[in-house]
Write a structure and sequence with these properties.
Strand order of the largest sheet: 2-1-5-4-3
Largest sheet: 5 strands, antiparallel
Strand content: 15-25%
Order of helices and strands: HHEEHEEEHHEEHHEHEEHEEHHEEHHHH
Oligomer: single chain
Distance between the termini: 70 Å
Structural class: alpha+beta
Helix content: 25-40%
Number of strands: 14
Mean pLDDT: 84
Low-confidence stretches: 1-16, 18-52
Length: about 475
């Protein structure tokens, strides 16, 4: 793709793709206004979405149509629910941006397609991040439509602000089943879903739906009790990479480096990149984040700022030819690192690295459900943060107005381990930590979330352990 075309693509899709960071970048590379404040980079992780009045905003069907030259196909929206009318100017502009971006992300592979008789069904997701930091998630099912002879793939795409991959996969099953009968059968199902309240964690919503020749069906949609990880499948990382490699990717993310994931299929790419971000809990990745990079936006890998992106392996020659500064290039198909900085194994304190690896290895064969795997894999990484920065609340001093002031130097000195202290001195300079501590400074009372609950449990265990150690001595 020529440079002017790439520039046009970024102008069109840029508002949906990029996170701003506090890092200094030349103005021509950033294209940002100097008046934009740090407040505008606030991050809302997918795991924090608790639902709203609607399950979703839109359902799109994207099909491949001949372009004007007649030589190639281009993805085109052929169905939309709901149709919106009388939109305000700002709403109209947002919908136009969506209409431009959705086809690109449903078919990120480019426009070189041909009719097929067989095509493996793929379920994947992408993330669109608006300039104000809000996120929209696209849940996609790509398949061959029912019919005789060679056909072109199509995509069902549900746009929502809610992160719950398993639940939306089931909704896509229902959309696919109805489309095989008629597009008209989709409408009442999606209308019923749109009128239903998104369930609380552990709760179920039951929808009543009529299907011709089958009668009335009742569809149950249940959220996992632990909604913290409902948007991810951490089994994806375990299938592709070793524990040591996962640990090195984690180390790269905590120092906000540039990471590119490569895989053939869209499902693996989107699942693995979501999983890598989930391991950062309770911190949130606040930089460029594109689970599947469309071909027209491959220049993203030349960015001088931190990013985490997924690229289809067919584009590896273009990626390797791109001028990239220190990057970790992960081949998920081969389970190897094609490029690395070289110090990924030395970023985290050695003892804590060994503890993570030991925890991941213990009892892994006994895990049966997705929830069990997610908890088993994520737990050691959260323990890492508890042991390195879990004492943060004690070093936020509050003034008479209740505003907190983080005592960074004393916080770092409080760690007895030299290697932990060395790591934390780097980590406190990241945007991951800065955004987290800014929220803690604003809060007049300690945050009563899952992370704080685990910190309390850890401190209680430490107190119980100390008397026993003294007795042994």
């Amino acid at each position: 793709m020529d440079r002017p075309a790439v520039g046009r693509a970024f102008k069109l899709f840029g508002p949906w793709l990029h996170r701003r960071s506090r890092w200094t970048v030349p103005e021509e590379a950033r294209g940002e206004s100097k008046k934009e404040t740090e407040e505008s980079i606030r991050e809302t992780p997918l795991s924090n979405y608790t639902g709203g009045p609607h399950f979703f905003e839109y359902l799109f069907v994207v099909s491949l149509k001949r372009n004007h030259s007649g030589n190639d196909y281009e993805p085109t929206i052929t169905y939309q629910f709901p149709k919106r009318e009388n939109l305000l100017r700002g709403q109209q502009e947002e919908e136009e941006r969506l209409h431009g971006a959705i086809p690109l992300f449903c078919f990120p592979d480019g426009n070189e397609w041909a009719p097929l008789t067989e095509y493996p069904r793929e379920t994947f997701s992408f993330v669109l991040t608006n300039m104000d930091g809000t996120r929209k998630i696209g849940y996609c099912r790509r398949l061959l439509p029912v019919g005789p002879g060679p056909r072109l793939p199509m995509v069902y795409c549900i746009i929502s602000c809610i992160g719950c991959f398993g639940l939306f996969s089931k909704i896509l099953d229902e959309v696919e089943k109805r489309h095989q009968i008629s597009m008209a059968v989709i409408y009442p199902f999606m209308q019923g879903l749109r009128e239903s309240a998104f369930p609380a964690p552990g709760k179920t919503v039951t929808l009543k739906s009529f299907i011709p020749d089958s009668g009335t069906e009742f569809i149950s949609l249940t959220r996992p009790l632990d909604s913290r990880l409902e948007h991810v499948d951490l089994r994806s990382l375990l299938r592709c990479l070793s524990h040591e490699q996962i640990l090195q990717i984690f180390a790269s993310t905590v120092l906000e480096r540039r990471i590119i994931f490569l895989a053939e299929d869209l499902s693996t790419l989107s699942q693995c990149i979501h999983a890598a971000v989930a391991l950062l809990y309770p911190f949130s990745w606040a930089h460029t984040y594109i689970p599947v990079v469309p071909e027209t936006l491959l220049d993203t890998v030349c960015s001088p700022t931190p990013f985490m992106v997924g690229v289809q392996k067919r584009f590896i020659p273009k990626v390797l030819d791109s001028p990239m500064e220190e990057v970790l290039l992960v081949d998920l198909c081969a389970g190897t690192f094609i490029k690395s900085v070289g110090d990924e194994g030395d970023i985290l304190p050695p003892k804590l690295q060994n503890d993570i690896l030991s925890s991941l290895a213990q009892g892994s064969n006994d895990l049966q459900t997705l929830e069990q795997v997610n908890e088993h894999v994520s737990g050691p990484f959260m323990q890492f943060f508890i042991r390195t920065v879990g004492h943060y609340a004690s070093y936020i001093k509050r003034g008479s107005d209740g505003q907190g002031n983080f005592q960074e130097r004393a916080f770092c000195k409080a760690l007895s381990s030299k290697t932990s202290r060395r790591f934390v001195k780097k980590f406190v300079k990241t945007q991951l930590f800065s955004l987290f501590i800014q929220e803690a400074e604003k809060s007049r009372t300690p945050h009563a979330g899952y992370f704080q609950q685990k910190i309390t449990e850890y401190e209680k265990q430490k107190k119980q352990k100390k008397p026993k150690e003294k007795t042994v001595k």
